[in-house]
Amino acid sequence: MKIVIIGGGAAGTRAAIEIRKRDRSSEILIINEKNYREYSPCGMPFVLSGDVKNFEALQTLNEKFYEKMKINL
Predict the structure, then answer these.
(1) Across the chain, where does the E strand assignment appear?
(2) What is the domain range of residue 20?
(3) Which of 11, 49, 54, 63 gives 20 to 30 Å between its CA and that of 22?
């Protein structure tokens, strides 16, 4: 089975993770209009002020996590 999730924000990513926990064989694809993975938007002011090094630091899950969970972006 192929599962397509529209939206790569917190809800879409969590849905993919929960599906993967229950189904190890289906292909999961997250379609996102943005060119980056899920991030914590609450932290954006800290990036702009320089308290957080860069935007990538706000991304809560790294590429290796998605690879390990076999979730395609």
Answers:
(1) 2-6, 27-31, 71-72
(2) 2-72
(3) 63
